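Hello,

Our lab assistant flagged a job as stuck in the queue for most of the afternoon. It eventually completed. Since we weren't sure the result was trustworthy after the delay, we are filing this so someone can double-check. Below is the sequence as submitted and the structure that was eventually returned. Let us know if re-running is recommended.
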Amino acid sequence: MTKQRAKILVIIPCYNEEASIQNLVNDIQSVKKQHDLPIDILVVNDCSKDNTLQVIKSLDCLYLDLPVNLGIGGGMQSGYKYAYRNGYQFAVQMDGDGQHPAIELPKLLQEAQTNKADVIIGSRFLEGKGFQSSFFRRLGITYFKWLNKFLIGQTIHDSTSGFRVFNRKTLELVNQYYPDEYPEPEAIVLFGMRKLIMKEVPVEMCERQGGVSSINSFRAIYYMFKVSLGIIFVYIRLKGKWKM
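-- returned structure --
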């Protein structure tokens, strides 16, 4: 008898995450067994320069080893394409640096399966628990909240959160196009313009368990400026493309 395919794919993008990826995959496997979740795990190695690939190969998971570095957007779309083309009903994004505790996974999946939302976003700001990020990054995220409200008329409190669940409808969209520069905040505009239903769920996040963040306090203002341009560019381009 053929084993039934898992309905849910957890996608973990990785670039130089040898210090954290093993614990994360093992934690997800533990949660999977504890809650009897029908999930598979796919790790996307984005040309890591450390021993990430060797660690991944030793784990109980699927993996993609990209031939060139695509960045977070390209890496995630590779995972989304895999999920869509292999018939998964839901895809989950979890960062490879350990910021997204596996114990919070059932909460997001329950919301995705019991409500009609197309996109579920794990938000650290709804209840203010756990790691809240740096002051400068919180300032930027608050700014993006109001920018999104202006552009698409929806309030998203944690638009840079990479802890997300997409249903089949959303997977069909991101299989065709997914932002590659600053994908998390830019995708909010994409989803809003396509009238997808987005819902935030409170989660507790942790500080990264390894690797180095690409954003720090000295680059926060520059980051806000570049992301703003990216968001506005996506909005203008898609508005023109979908104008009837």
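-- support follow-up --
The delay was a queue issue, not a problem with the job. The result is valid. The mean pLDDT is 87. Strands lie at 8-14, 39-45, 62-65, 90-93, 119-123, 164-166, 198-202.
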